[in-house]
């Protein structure tokens, strides 16, 4: 792809910062919007900017997507070609207790961005969606055409709503949009509220971990570099409209994942087996045929390599 000006929202976040690094290194002009909200320790967001993006050229706006005028100024200042919209209030469990912030960040924030994408004739809009739109699926692997009308968390409901808002902008104004449904993304610089992070932290601190669903859960764990490959390919393709799963294409038992963390940390974990939590699903497993066909998406990283990479980062970053 020839050099483009690309707006990444949520660029201080886990996925957005990795995407920014990759795109800057490929020669693109990257503009980042992030509000550095305190959903988890903002010092990790600051560290991604100061370490992961160290010495790289980019422009950062510390603004909120809910602030239409502030975001509009960014579009006035830069001739943006493409948007990779990663910013969102994430987290399934948190959404049950704090629904309003999901309405603000995910619904209003996304609507503001779609409206500006229309006004400024953006060539391609990538929307970070989620496997959570499938609810508690019963047939596997999950296809993009499977039911998404019964979200079992507020978070999932807002992610599906973002897809619907995006479709109407595509239909009415021919905005090219690709909705990418990510499946449990993990890797260095990952989010502290996600299992791999808290399990690894517990391993080094010698504290017990809570294992929900009595351990009988499976996830399609997707390594960050593979996911970023998929996002970059979607940015390159600029499909008129697509909804695509991005996963590894395999369901990994949670207990195997925990064993891999124990192996790479050299610590054994004490486990509290608990029931499923509201909003959680028992299993995810992506059918990635569509992404393979349309984007030549090809995830490469094994669970073992991915967990090793995460644990190595954790040890270095937290000096344990
Ligand atoms: N990590 C996963 O496993 C996963 C899975 C499915 C979908 N997703 C989606 O991928 C995207 C990125 O997730 P992540 O794991 O990097 O999360 P993250 O929380 O690390 O990153 C999101 C970033 O967006 C910023 N942000 C949130 N609301 C904002 C607003 N209103 N204005 C400006 N900035 C705002 C946050 O400060 C944060 O830095 C999200 O849309 C998330 O829903 C992630």
From TrEMBL:
The keyword Nucleotide-binding does not apply. InterPro entries: Epimerase_deHydtase (IPR001509), NAD(P)-bd_dom_sf (IPR036291). Residues 6-238 form the NAD-dependent epimerase/dehydratase domain. Pfam families: Epimerase. Keywords: NAD. It comes from the Bacteria. SUPFAM superfamilies: NAD(P)-binding Rossmann-fold domains. Coiled coil: none annotated. This is NAD-dependent epimerase/dehydratase domain-containing protein. It comes from Candidatus Uhrbacteria bacterium CG10_big_fil_rev_8_21_14_0_10_48_16. The lineage of its organism: Bacteria, Candidatus Uhriibacteriota.
């Amino acid at each position: 792809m020839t050099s483009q000006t690309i707006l990444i929202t949520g660029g201080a976040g886990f996925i957005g910062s990795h995407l920014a690094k990759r795109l800057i290194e490929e020669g693109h002009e990257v503009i980042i919007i992030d509000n550095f909200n305190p959903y988890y320790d903002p010092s990790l967001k600051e560290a991604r900017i100061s370490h992961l993006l160290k010495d790289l050229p980019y422009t950062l706006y510390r603004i909120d997507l809910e602030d239409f005028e502030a975001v509009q100024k960014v579009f006035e200042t830069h001739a943006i070609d493409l948007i990779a919209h990663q910013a969102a209030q994430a987290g399934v469990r948190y959404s049950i207790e704090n629904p309003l912030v999901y309405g603000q960040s995910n619904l209003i924030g996304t609507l503001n961005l779609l409206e500006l994408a229309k006004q400024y004739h953006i060539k391609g809009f990538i929307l970070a969606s989620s496997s959570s739109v499938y609810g508690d699926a019963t047939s596997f692997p999950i296809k993009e055409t499977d039911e998404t009308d019964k979200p079992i968390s507020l978070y999932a409901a807002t992610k599906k709503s973002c897809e619907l808002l995006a479709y109407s902008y595509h239909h009415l104004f021919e905005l090219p949009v690709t909705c990418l449904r990510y499946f449990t993304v993990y890797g260095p610089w990952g989010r502290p509220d996600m299992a791999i992070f808290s399990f690894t932290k517990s391993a080094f601190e010698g504290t017990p971990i809570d294992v929900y669903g009595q351990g009988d859960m499976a996830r399609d764990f997707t390594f960050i570099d593979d996911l970023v490959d998929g996002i970059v390919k979607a940015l390159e393709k600029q499909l008129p409209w697509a909804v695509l799963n991005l996963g590894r294409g395999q369901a990994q038992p949670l207990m195997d994942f925990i064993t891999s963390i124990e192996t790479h940390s050299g610590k054994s974990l004490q486990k509290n087996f608990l029931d499923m939590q509201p909003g959680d699903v028992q299993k995810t497993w992506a059918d990635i045929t569509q992404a393979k066909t349309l984007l030549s998406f090809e995830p490469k990283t094994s669970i073992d390599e991915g967990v090793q990479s995460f644990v190595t980062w954790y040890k270095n970053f937290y000096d344990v």
